[in-house]
Amino acid sequence: MPTTERLLIEPLAHAHAEGLVAALAHDSVGAYTGGPEVTTVEAQHERIDDLARGPDQPDERWLNFAVSRHVDGLVLGYVQATTYADWAEVAYVFGPATSGHGFATEAVQWLIGHLRSLGVHELWAAIHPDNGPSIRLIERVGFDVQPQLGRPVASYDEGDLVFRLDATRSAPTPG
Length: 175
Ligand SMILES: CC(C)(COP(=O)(O)OP(=O)(O)OC[C@H]1O[C@@H](n2cnc3c(N)ncnc32)[C@H](O)[C@@H]1OP(=O)(O)O)[C@@H](O)C(=O)NCCC(=O)NCCS
Known about the structure:
The chain has 175 residues and is an alpha+beta fold. The protein is 26% helix and 26% strand. It has one domain (7-166): Gcn5-related N-acetyltransferase (GNAT) (Aminopeptidase, 3-Layer(aba) Sandwich).
């Protein structure tokens, strides 16, 4: 099972449903992503089923991982990527109760390495301009803001900032 220094990172499964709801059912979590996260365990199970069904497009792949803390198994959030032939877009959602310890940063760094291991080196993220924590995170892991959208990033909303990482470069050390 993939692990980092402090995290267990597993393909999203029904076993994570309760933990995800406990971690993410806060108003602040959906403030910049178009609405609240899933707030009931039942709805979370449905969402996990939907994601497991995968995309309709043949050249698209959805990767979804639940992130837990090694020390006690507490579910912290999730990281996800949609891969297209030779590029991907990434997203991540973590709960406020465990913010500020670098867990989300550590998980996104793992995701970048995982995508690199799959041969996907061009990564994009779209972020609301007021979402300071997310902008700081994406820049911390090595993405640079772009003057324009260079790929059809599905999570892009009008006015978002767009970030790109050339993952053939070595990743910066978190700080
Ligand atoms: C964006 C989001 C993932 C950030 O999560 P987080 O838990 O605050 O992230 P981290 O703990 O990795 O980083 C937070 C702080 O911890 C600090 N930190 C503490 N210890 C650290 C360590 N060991 N390594 C790295 N950073 C560390 C970081 O420097 C960072 O400080 P900053 O916010 O002042 O830059 C979270 O706010 C979130 O999920 N928001 C809602 C959903 C969302 O907006 N997702 C993004 C959509 S584009």
